[in-house]
Amino acid sequence: MTKENIKPIVKSRNEPFVDRVATRICQEVPSAHNPYIAESCQYHGYDALELAKKRSFSDVIFLLQAGELPSEQASQLFETLLVLLCNPGPRHPATRAAMNAGVGKTNPAHILPISQSVMSGEHLGGGEVSACMTFLRKHRKNVPAEIAHELIAESERPEAGDWHIAPGFGSRFGDIDIIPERNAALLMTLPGKGLALDWANEFVKPLHEHNTGWLITGLAAAVFLDLGFHPRAGAGLFQIASSPGLLAHGLELANKPRTAMPFPDDEHYFYEPKNSEQ
After folding, report:
1. Which neighbouring-strand residues pair with 46?
2. Rg (CA), the chain
3. Is residue 74 part of a domain?
4. Residue 3 — pLDDT band, cuts 50, 70, 90?
5. How far is the first Cα of the chain from the last one, in angstroms, to the nearest whole number?
């Protein structure tokens, strides 16, 4: 018998599909004259027009994720964090992707998706945020300084590149990242902060002795936990927060010539064989 004559065994899982899509998030009331058009829309029971009149964009983002509107303190904490995250800056790989897409004459509608594909990653991206939220939840009942010292003892600082003690915490360009440290100091003064931010702030203190500290992903993770979000939501929320800056940097270069971005000369290109001894 040849491979061509072998047929795969197909088994039915007997999983019936539902007849209609169900959601608790959004209720659309169909129009009387055309049922395919919505007459009104509610998010978790709140009329969309009323929300537009009385609530901020950040409050509605919170509502869509949490199912309820934030308290005044939670609203302030979330709004402050979103402002701090809204522009990753030109050193961030996702911003560089947006800038390269813009100057490369990419369709402007594609700039944000291209940059967000980078922002979703495990390095300073949404993937690291979710991983950090899981890390903080796992160790929340432990003494933060003890966990820090254990991780430092178990990990060896690499000869090149940055040292990440744990997701969301480490060095940036070989040093403590100043901006997340300052952002953390601001967030620690807000009445809406909670146990996750307090724990992480104590965890960071022993790291400073080793020239490491907060990363922006760790800061986002701690606040998201204090706001009650699940780790699976962390990556997407981080991407939403970074979108304004990514889009702005990409569009800034969209009408400029390709020469507006540096092009490395031949001296900066080299080939390194996988097995250098051969």
Report:
1. 43
2. 24
3. no
4. low
5. 44
Torsion of CA 169, 172, 177, 180, to 10 degrees: -50
For residue 159, being part of any structural domain is answered with yes
Largest Cα span, the chain: 76
Instruction: Give the integer Cα–Cα distance in Å for 84 and 210.
Output: 25
45, 136: one domain: no
CA distance 21 to 30: 15
Length of the chain: 278
Q: Kindly tell me the sign of the dihedral angle through the C-alpha atoms of 67, 88, 79, 41.
A: negative
What is the model's pLDDT at position 4? 61
Note the pLDDT tens digit of each residue in 108-164: 999 999 999 999 999 999 999 999 999 999 999 999 999 999 999 998 888 888 999
What three-state secondary structure class fits 46?
strand
- Whether residue 276 is predicted with pLDDT greater than 60 in this model: the reply is no
Report how many domains make up the chain. 2
- Burial, 23: exposed, middle or buried (Cβ in 10 Å; 0-12, 13-18, 19+)? exposed
**Residue 219 three-state SS:** helix
Please count the other Cβ atoms lying within 10 Å of the Cβ belonging to residue 48: 15
46-47 vs 164-166, strand pairing mode: unpaired
pLDDT tens across 178-210, in order? 999 999 999 999 999 999 999 999 999 999 999
Residues 207 and 97 in one domain: yes
Q: Based on the fold, state whether residues 94 and 37 are members of the same structural domain.
A: no
The pTM (predicted TM-score) of the whole model is 0.89
